[in-house]
Structures are given as C-alpha cells and as structure tokens.
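My current task is to audit a protein record that another person submitted. What it holds is a sequence and that sequence's fold in token form. Thanks in advance; the entry in question is below.
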Amino acid sequence: MLKVTKTKLDEVLIVEPKVFGDSRGYFFESYNKERFQEAGIEADFIQDNESFSSYGVLRGLHFQKMPYTQAKLVRVIQGEVLDVAVDIREGSPTYGEHVAVKLSAENKRQLYVPRGFAHGFAVLSEEVIFAYKCDNYYHPEADGGIKFDDESLNIDWLIPAKKMILSEKDKIQPLLKDVSVFNINDELS
C-alpha cells in the first residue's frame, strides 16, 4: 500500500511506501507500476539513474526540453537531501513556485516530479546515494536548467552558500524569467 500526499503543487507528489521491518532489517517495494497507477502516477519509467554526492553538493535545477521531457521518481538510498521541484510551465497558476521536501534513507519518502517541472537537490548528510526513475531517455541536446539561487524562486537550500558545491554548468544557468520552454497547454507526455 502506498501513501500518496499532494504538495502545494498538485502534480508533485510525495510517495511513502509501506515498510515492513523486524530485527533483521526492512523490506519495501520502491516501485510497483500497478500500485503507482492506482495512485494516479501514470508515468512509464524506462531509465534508472543513481548518483553519489557529499555534503554541500547541489545538483540542479535541471529539466529536459521538448520533445524529450521527463517525469522523475526520486529517492534516497543512503543519507539525506533537500529535494526541490519548480513549476516552469508558463500560464500555470503555480508557475515559478516550488516544493522542497526532505528525502532520506530513514524516511524512505519518494518525490514524483512530473514533466514541465525543474528538479534539483542539495545534500544535507555527509554522503548521499540518490536514485532517479525517468520516463524518457536522457538527451544531452535537450538539457535545460535554471539558476539554483534565482531570487524569484526564493529557495532555501538549507546549506550555507560558502559550503555549496556546484558544477560549472549549474553556476551559470539562466534565471527563470529568461527560460521559456513549457506552456501549461503544451502536451508534455
């Protein structure tokens, strides 16, 4: 059984699996297509990714441009992150708004980030292993991003700026106002 909670961005969902634990450890289904569909998550995931990062690493805010948009189901295998999704669909009533959720190995929460949203995370623990399920293949030519510290987004990454570790690409991403990729009326699936 899945517990699915809507966030302030209706399409972005927090997914909490049923965890079975005893003296030996624990077991849970991290993904079951039928159960996810029953919960309203229709994405057909076709690619799994995993990353390893240390404290202070901030990855994002990333998205794939059309026609290679991606929905993601993300979770933490080891450690803790602040996971962020930003609505970048022009014309959406929640355009430019974000959701920030702590995901950890302990809470076993997952975040469903639909197409038309930028995604990023900041590592809050000493190290993290982060897993992504994607419903479309990655295409480098469709890579897009938004500057992590865009003042219009007002994201508190929970890490002091001097401790943030960013890729060169993420340091120079454009501001949201300079990105026009999706419209609320676009067919993103």
